[in-house]
Structures are given as C-alpha cells and as structure tokens.
Amino acid sequence: MTSAGPTGTTTAPQALDAQLVAAIAQSRERTFAAHRAHLGAVAPEAEELVGVVEDYLAGGKLLRPRFCFWGGIAALDRAPDEDEVSRLAALGTAIELVQAAALMHDDVIDHSPTRRGRPALHVEAATSHRERGLDGSAADFGIATAIVLGDLALSWSEQLAAEVASPGAGPRPAAAAVEFARLRTEVMSGQYLDVLHQAGGFTSAPSEEEAALAVIRWKTVPYTVLRPVRAGAALMGAGAEALELLSTWAAEIGTAFQLRDDLLSVVGDADATGKPIGGDVAEGKRTVLLARTVAATDAAGRRLLERTVGRPDAAAEDVTAVQELMVRTGAVDSVVRDVRAAAERARSILSRAAECGELGALGVTGLQSIADSATDVESIGG
C-alpha cells in the first residue's frame, strides 16, 4: 500500500520506515554530541559514559519508536512531512532511552548475565573493574555503574522529550508530554509489581496467573506499545476516539508480545533472542507460562519445579526437564493460543478503525506490520 505525501509524492511504508531509521540516527547523533560536550567539561571519565549509552542502544530493533511513529501516521491519515518525521523520531529516541534505563536496571534486579547476545552492562562494568585492577568489589562496581547509567539515560530521555513534547508548546505537544510522563510512571510501577510478585507479596491479585497478567499490563504494555503509540498519535493531533481505539489495540499487542517473550525465554532460540534459554526458570520468573505449568502438573512435576525454579545453581538437566514439563503439560501450547488470539483481536480492531476512518490506512498498515513481527509464534508451534 502507498500513500500520497504532503508534496504529492507517493510513499510506501517501507520507504517511510527507512526514513524513520535515518531520522532516529540523526536524533541520536545530535543528542549524544550535546551530552558528550557537556560531560567532557566535567571529566574525561564522565564523557566516557556517553559512549557506553550510545553503544548500549546500538543494534536495537527500534520497536517502540516504530510504534510511536506509525501511531502518529495513523493519526495524520497521510504521509508525514520532514519536520513531522523528525519530531516523531526524536520522541521515539526519548522512549528508547527510557527502555535503555529500564533494561540496565532490570538486568541488575534479575541478575541477568547477558543482554542482546553480549554481557549485561553490570557484568561488563565488573569485568572492566577486574581488568583495570581497581579497588573494591568488582560486582558492586558493576551494579553501581548500571544504576548510574540507567538514571542518566532516564534523565536524557526527559530532556529530549521536552524538546518535542513540552506542555507549554501547545495542545498537541502537551498531550504527547502527558503520554510520555505516564509511560515512565507506569513502567516503574509495573517493575515494582514484578519485584513484589517475585517475592510473593502481590496479594491483591486473586491468582498467580492474574498477578502475572497484571505485571504484563503495567510493566510491558505501557512502555512497549500503549504509551509509545498514543504519544506519537497525540503529537500528530489524534482525537479522543482514535486514542481509545489505539489503547484497546495496544493492550492486546502488548500482552501478546510479553507472553511470546516468556515463551521464547523457555523454548526459543538463544542465538535469535540473545538471552540464555531457561534463564527464566533458574531466575524463577512468575510468568503465566509457569502458573499454568504448576496448575497442570502432578506431584512429581511439582517436586521438579520446587527444586529447580528460582535456583541459579539448579542442575542443567533439571532446567531442561522443567522446559519439557512446560511443553508436556500443554502450558506452552495454551500460551501460544493466547498470543494468536490476542493478535487476531488486535488485527480486527485496526481493520475496523481503518474502515470507519478513525485511523488512516497508511498508519494501520505500518502498525499491523510491526504487530505481526512482535507476536509471531510460528517457530514455537501450538
């Protein structure tokens, strides 16, 4: 599908996506150059922090900026002009910085050794500490570095978002600023619910599965799909009805995305995910997948789960046995079906929104393409 641009040109979604990627690269370059100049005046060691964050963002899939961008295009109902692409890219870059902060801290909380196929930031910093022969605990230094860099990335995200989504710049930027503020608040609240749930303290949820779903709703959905897509749409002038449609769609896609991610952490391909398979088992992540496995297994299965789940020193053969149990009990297949059902409901929402003219066809095409990629479970089966 193509669309006429503001100058009468015809723009394909693939070409627009490439334009977005280029604009994000430019936004990052400007942002990091400014921070490098600022921190360079503090100390050479402080300036090095900019390069660490810059490298951390390299190689990402730009999922959240794409949701932001195509939400904006859906609101515009046409191809964007150069200024609109630039503003949406800057807002998307700010959201990527929030994600970077969340991941840096999340890996510390979860004791995750890797991220995107390479050592997690706190592990990398600890290794550097040992190699340089610095004083004190290398592990403590790594954790402290990840916390500081996460805080720095979060600060930079706010500065960048304020350039394009300032409450004092008019109704559209003000609406986008509200979405960005809620994104940061909700993901932090969701992170706390996740930590609380891991400790067995999320007692207001009526069941283990519903607690896991609530964590998804407040940790993953807001900063992965819902707020990015609403922020982009608000920045481009979306009305209340369009925003509500996007919210309903985002809840389905965000939930399906996280359920799929939980599956990939157990039955995925480590080379493709960049994370060790079985990591969620050893860590003891209280996922929907685990809740359904516990509910469906027998006494022998529960004994296996008790001696393996949440135990970093668990025997490799027990971790493998838990993965096999998740398949054998039907838990994997049931989660795969839920991912597919949510993706199909989301598809229907977008289709109806395009048909009634609430969302533009070009933006709907872009959003559907990202959703298809984010919820694909064909390699898992079910």
TrEMBL record:
Gene3D superfamilies with a match to the protein in the record: Farnesyl Diphosphate Synthase
InterPro entries xrefs: Isoprenoid_synthase_dom_sf, Polyprenyl_synt, Polyprenyl_synt_CS
UniProt keywords, alphabetically: Magnesium, Metal-binding, Transferase
Superkingdom to which the source organism belongs: Bacteria
Transmembrane parts of this sequence: none
GO MF terms held by the record: transferase activity
SUPFAM superfamilies named among the record's database cross-references: Terpenoid synthases
Necessary cofactors: Mg(2+)
Record-listed E.C. numbers: 2.5.1.-
Family (UniProt): Belongs to the FPP/GGPP synthase family.
PANTHER family: GERANYLGERANYL PYROPHOSPHATE SYNTHASE, SHORT CHAIN ISOPRENYL DIPHOSPHATE SYNTHASE
Protein name: Polyprenyl synthetase family protein
Naturally occurring in which organism (per UniProt): Brachybacterium rhamnosum
